[in-house]
Amino acid sequence: MIFGRFYLYLISNLLLSFSIAFASNPDSTSQSIFYVITIEGVINPVSAEYIVKSIAEADIKAIERIIAVNTLGPIRVTQALIGNLRKGEQKLIINITSLMGSIERNARGIGYGYRESKAALNMFTKSLSNELKDEGFRCIVMSPGWVRTDMGGPNARLTPQESISGMIEVISGLSAEDSGEFFNHTGEKLPW
Ligand SMILES: NC(=O)c1ccc[n+]([C@@H]2O[C@H](COP(=O)([O-])OP(=O)(O)OC[C@H]3O[C@@H](n4cnc5c(N)ncnc54)[C@H](OP(=O)(O)O)[C@@H]3O)[C@@H](O)[C@H]2O)c1
Question: What pTM did the predictor assign?
Fold first, then answer.
């Protein structure tokens, strides 16, 4: 489990762009896992500058790929590791979403594919939190804020370090009542 924590701190000093599950040994069905964080993400094509602006521009194949990575990826990781997580002590599942996945905060449209992929990830995580509540799991979605990564671009407000240290603090303080919620990197609750 030291392995998992090592990675968490490693990310806080590097980039947000990571696609990993924190596991002692994901291949072994006998190993326990404390927590899983899914972070992979794609946007169409790669940068916010190119976000699909109209339904006429929307490319169904690209949307399929975005949903496969951003939504089905975390579902697959969760399904593969749930047995190990049940044997762990902390039972944390953190899926990295986006404010763009909030239906309530969607005031300007655009971003076809990406928005749907994150809204579906949010719904998946909410359902999971309900299913696993009695087993002591805490399952949340977190928005990292606008971060200077390949996806966020050079004008983004936060450094990866700022975003990730904030997220680590929020994750460290999660209670059972927080399960099934949508947070940002400062711990503010966001609307669905
Ligand atoms: N940056 C922001 O401002 C911002 C805002 C809101 C939400 N987010 C969310 O934060 C998370 C991290 O984004 P980021 O800013 O770090 O983006 P990023 O710099 O573009 O990195 C995206 C990461 O996703 C991985 N990835 C892409 N396709 C994959 C696939 N098919 N399977 C596995 N991994 C795949 C990439 O791996 P490779 O490097 O190997 O391609 C890369 O590590 C994403 O979920 C994103 O939606 C970011």
Answer: 0.87
